[in-house]
Write a structure and sequence with these properties.
Length: about 325
Amino acid sequence: MSQPATLPSDLDTARDVLATEAAGLRALAASLDGRFAAAVDVLIGASGRVVVSGMGKSGHVATKIAATLASTGTTALYVHPAEASHGDLGMIVEGDAVLALSNSGETAELADLIAYTRRFAIPLIAITGGAQSSLAQAADVALILPPAPEACPMGLAPTTSTTMQMALGDALAVALLTRRGFSPTDFRRFHPGGKLGAKLRRARDLMHTGSELPLAAPDTPMHDALLLMTEKRFGCLGAVDAEGRLVGILTDGDLRRAMGPDLLSRRLGEVMNRTPRSIGPDALAAEALHQMNTATSPFTTLFVVDAAQKPLGILHIHDLLRAGLA
């Protein structure tokens, strides 16, 4: 009597899936040619929106591609191909470009949308595995997915093919944002929430200003400096010269190192650190946190200064943490 076949472990299955999909991505990267650049030309040349469409699993990928495009500076939306046949074709207008996804290239629900783009001269880009398919033949630019086995053991469930579609959509989005010169400031405008939004905030957005600033002249007596340092509650005191430039900083660590019977008889300039760390107002808050955490001796406050080294504000690490940077 034959013994039942031993099933692969879950880990073996997972690794096989990932290896199969990774091989598909490598094949996709190797297959790219001038048609990819042509597709980018079409999309960046659209005066309207990029309309992304697909059915089934390709439709789910299409919604993600539309969202990625929209969040990186390319106005985009998803249109369901079946709904398009029942009135939503009116959402696609002159100036738009259509990006249609279908692994086979023969998805019946796409037929009306394809015909609509041809009738009204709306640029059509295809992402398909069928080089000779109806979709590929109708498209202005066809991006052909290379032959690659699905990761499903039956070779049926869309896995490798949808992974390649998703990756190709990401490649288009990144190529477009690179062409547009899309900056971190632009990115933050579309991502104000969550940790990503926090990382893209600027020092000027989080700094304390005005009367909150702990500042004094270098010739300030230490007993007055200590009172001011305590009052401002940042655990430091910045020293500014007659022109208002930051020339030093006094921290709790500096006080411990200078502790002695004559401390109160000295002046701020005698005890302060003469190489204060600072950052510009337009620097990312994430950069400020990086400075604080990666210094030889990590610190908790950072002055924000202008080009002339005049203090504009001060950042405390708690401000960065409250903003969601860690």
